[in-house]
Specification:
Blueprint lengths: L1 H15 L7 E6 L14 H17 L7 H7 L14 H11 L18 E3 L2 E3 L1 H8 L5 E5 L9 E3 L10 E4 L2 H13 L4 E4 L4 E10 L4 E6 L11 E5 H7 L2 E5 H5 L1
Parallel strand pairs: 4-6
Antiparallel strand pairs: 1-8, 2-3, 4-11, 5-6, 7-8, 7-11, 8-9, 9-10
Amino acid sequence: MKRILYLMTVILLWSCVEPAPKHFTHDVLNRMTPVKDQGKSQTCWIYAMLAAIETEHLAWGDSVNLSPYYIEKMLEREPLCPKSKRGEPATTLRLLQKYGICGYDAMRSTKTPAPRWVFLYGATYTPQEFARSVCKPGEYLQLTCDDDKPYYKEHELEVPDNWLHDHYLNIPVDTLLAKTIRAVRQHHGVCWEDKGHAMAIVGIAHDDQGKEYFIMKNSWGTNRPYGGLDYLSFDDFRKETVAVEMTKEAYRN
């Protein structure tokens, strides 16, 4: 009986041990701002889209670090916003154009008032003026892959989080994968989402078996197996992708 209990204890302890992190080799790792932590909020869609914009600018040699708290604060002015504060990365783009944005250092909490001015390089801007300098109206394209809808046509993304009723260009998933790979290799910022989460894509990697992955910048802080990064296999990209946001330039090239 003691031997049986001992074996059961060993099995139980073994099952509680987390597997060692998988080893990845980075083929492309684009520049990015420090990883942020969304905490208990459901605003990953804000963090992911702003992270993609930041990486896009870093590729140009222009450093911007944007405040997700500013956009979250602006949600208080949106009557259609659900209590959960869930949304789409495309929602971030709409709110950014409507309300503007400020730097991360100017607003690090929703408990502080949103700044009325943005001070940069000796100049003063309104949040809307600053937003137009980091993301021009219509600069980004929303992409999705839905086999039940006509390809290369725009349609409303039919998910509850799309409460602003944004439209997305529908393309085949293999085309979307190829476009995303090329955009990342050309150092563009890309935002990705599945049914429950959104992250920025900041690179491409492979494992020891040669399987390929996107390197994802997550907004769950850095106290995790890969710091602030996660890895999404190309196979899972095909299966799980709901939408991708990238600049029109990245899509055309």
